[in-house]
Structure prediction request, 388 residues.
Amino acid sequence: MAAKDLPLVPGARPGSMAAAAAMERIREQRPAIDKEKCNLCRECLLYCPDAALAIAGGEVRLELRFCKGCGICARECPARAITMVPEYAGDRGLVGEE
Amino acid sequence: MELINSLAAVPDTELFTGGHGGCRGCGAALAARQAMKALGPRTIITIPASCMATIGGSGLTTAWEIPFYHSLFECAPAVASGIRAALDIQGIEDVNVVSWAGDAGTADIGFQSLTGAAERQENIIHVCYDNETYMNTGGQAGSATPYLAATPDTPAGKPTPRKDMLAIMAAHRPAYLATASVAYPLDLIQKFQRAREIEGFRYIHILAPCFKGWGIKEDQTVQLARIAVECGLWQLYEEVDGRRRVTVIPERRLPVREYLRLQGRFQTMDEATIAALQAAVDRRWQEVPS
Ligand SMILES: Cc1ncc(C[n+]2csc(CCOP(=O)(O)OP(=O)(O)O)c2C)c(N)n1
Ligand code: SF4
Ligand code: SF4
Ligand code: SF4
Ligand SMILES: [Mg+2]
Prediction:
């Protein structure tokens, strides 16, 4: 049998974890980005372990489905343009509005 | 090849996507995301048992946008060697074949296949993402765990120092060898770019902190990866044909105490031990050609 005719084990489809992402289920806080302070240096983009940040239309955009609320972007932003705002506070449940 | 010289030049495409299964602030996931910016879509990756093998998905869903293969713990570099042989026989040349293992998959349980692949000068890149413990099974100590780090099975601190994997791999005379840190993404990306262009066995060792194992907060992953470089415990360099070049000389120098005291796992370390570690780092610092 030629190598190309060998049966294939079904594989995971690319993009399947991104498509199913719903990190609001585990997130307790999320970044709020101050557009006035942000100088578009892009550092937060490369430090986010979850690929939740991108620059589009001249500003940093946050993909909330990906963001786990780790706070790395807020700690690393050299312009201090990011603050973490609580979304869930234990027995007090969800806090704040979207 | 044009080196990526600014953050603006880093490609936007995510080949390791959001939605993956890593914890908040996972250094291992961050390392993979950064590396894929340089490796590009023509890459096949093989991953042994580790956090990375669970983070990136399973047979059903995945965060990888490239072909990935989960191997047994012992044999990711051997599987990568086989993938390279299969590509060679089909005349496919433009693919990066990467084995991507944790510190246990590199220095301990995966070591025999790693040393074999390096000795055969396989045309692959082996990456060790180093969180200095066996995180996927609860953070047990291994040979990459530093001296006196507390882990579930060394609660009073690991009694022996960390194995020097870079010296061991350098002794194999690889075509390319480099250290990297998730706090220096451009340096990391450039090293993967250089490794891509070189034929033969290439070894890249990335310091990728894990908040759980290190006793830090989730937002401190990058901070600790940076302070490790600034205090001199983790040097950033590369070696082509055995010639070393330091790639990052940190703007500020910090005492090792600062690095150690930020982490929960070094709480048992006394001042005399810290002073001895500082002296060793100072000696090595003087040897660094700047
Ligand atoms: C032969 C074998 N022994 C033990 C295990 C259990 N096991 C799975 S992952 C792991 C630790 C992995 O540590 P490391 O390579 O450092 O990666 P990390 O999880 O820290 O990212 C262990 C012991 C296994 N899967 N196979
Ligand atoms: S790190 Fe801060 S200043 Fe830089 S792009 Fe991100 S939010 Fe803007
Ligand atoms: S909080 Fe963490 S996951 Fe969310 S955008 Fe910032 S770095 Fe990314
Ligand atoms: S235990 Fe550590 S290395 Fe493993 S997924 Fe969580 S943060 Fe990442
Ligand atoms: Mg590990």
Summary: Residues 29 and 69 of chain A are 5 Å apart (CA to CA). Residues 16-20 of chain A form the longest helix (5 residues).
